[in-house]
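Hi Q.,

Before the meeting this afternoon, I wanted you to have the calcium ion prediction in hand. No need to reply - just skim if you have a minute. The sequence and ligand are here:
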Amino acid sequence: MNPSRLICSMAALVSAAAAQAQTSKPNVIVIMTDDVGYGDFSCYGATRMSTPHIDQLAARGTRFTDAHASASTSTPSRYAFLTGEYPFRRLGTDVAAGNAGMIIKPEQFTLADLFKRAGYATAAIGKWHLGLGSKTAQQDWNGQLDQTPADLGFDYSCIMAATADRVPCVFIENDHVKNYDPSAPIQVSYRQNFEGEPTGKSNPELLQLQPSHGHDMSIVNGISRIGYMKGGGKALWKDEDIADSIASYAINWIEERVNMAKNAPHCRKGECDHTRRSEANLPFFMYLCTNDIHVPRWPHARFAGKSPMGSRGDAILQLDWTVGQITAALQRMGIADNTLIILTSDNGPVLDDGYADRAEELAGSHRPAGHWRGGKYSAFEAGSAVPFIVSWPAGKVPQGKTSRALVSQIDAMRSLAAVVGEQLADSLGIDSRDHHRTWLGLSSKPRNYVVSMAYNRSVSIRTPQWKYIVPTKGPAMVPWGPHIETGFTSTAQLYNMRGKQGETTNMAEKHPKIVKQLDEQLKKELESPQR
Ligand code: NG6
Ligand code: CA
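Predicted structure with the ligand bound:
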């Protein structure tokens, strides 16, 4: 063998070993669904329709029955998930408008930064709802956005700025509007309408879906939204295609990476290019946020009318399809076993969330929150108790297991850091703790307690046994439309979560010492992170 070939094959060996070491780090996909309740999947007890792909994911992994988001609405919940910091530590983390400036600051450490540090390629796809651009209402939607997920560690992003019910109704790829249409410049305002533009309020005859509360501003695709926008042309999304778009953006990006790895000539014609090879072998992290099942629920014709529960049920079927598309793509590419998938929801469920889609009327015996009380927005458990499934066959996550351990999404940062072998300084992900063995189904050790924030920013604390809701001013029911109990009372509430009555019997008077102890614990957390 001539010397150059020998060097080449040695380099190939080194490169193969490096590749081996690389692939032992799993790809990580977080599927963050929107407004899906604890009881919305068949593997969590739904009986009026079935979610076979999600059930299959659970069968290939561990399913948690006491998992919590950090807040009962999207923006604060996602803020906590991506930063490992509770949203009550930072003002401006409430449900964001579509023209909000970026809420996580570029200098903050995020989950994507963690994965970059571990040598991963990173992507954010789908619903974002954490603001874009350095200044609220100052974004140039027709040019370049000056702050994007790229500033938070994401190599690639293809996202909806906020929610499907908020303008602008376009996807944003990296720093610009995807499929930008120069013939229809985009204007966005959350203050006033653009002259001559129809709105849901003034032109209900133009609507294919009527609002039930709010959502009566600009009309896009026959659906009126929150906020005003003009223009967009070919870039405007069609609601019925959003799930397909999100699935294809996600799968295309993954496929590109896998093809790069396959085609990388690590040793061709005596030339070794192992730099390129190892680059192409980078594991990936994808933060994949579905639009389903947030309002407006307007699923594709393939799903419309396919559940007995109207468009909310159809959106669940569409979500299940999305999960099936992702898992099938991973199988096809041969990377399913070494891909760690976490599927969860940003907050609890809501039926009527502002559009007359008959979700309440058609729910029948379906209990979107399962056995938990309340729903999206609430301080009660259903505000934050969400489905949580972890699957990673190569990582030996037990298959078909149910874990009753109390877990919280706030721990994503440090649990995933442990999975990918990164150490984090105490100043990063300050509220996150390493519970990776529990998350991977290898231990049943629960979190000592979980803290969650309701829509009025009041907090509650849950231990494996107790739930304490701080006294807070506010109405008993969500006041603007959704028929949901808030869990707000001016006196302390203490519930025995191990007892049969759950959140129906207030034990605060019976157990003043426990109230005092949990109140103190919560106050300490509010002041500073407790280790
Ligand atoms: C509310 C919207 C609701 C939903 C929610 C945010 C009205 C009347 N209601 O203000 O429809 O968009 O905000 O949902 O505007 S979340 O899941 O993104 O937090
Ligand atoms: Ca949500």
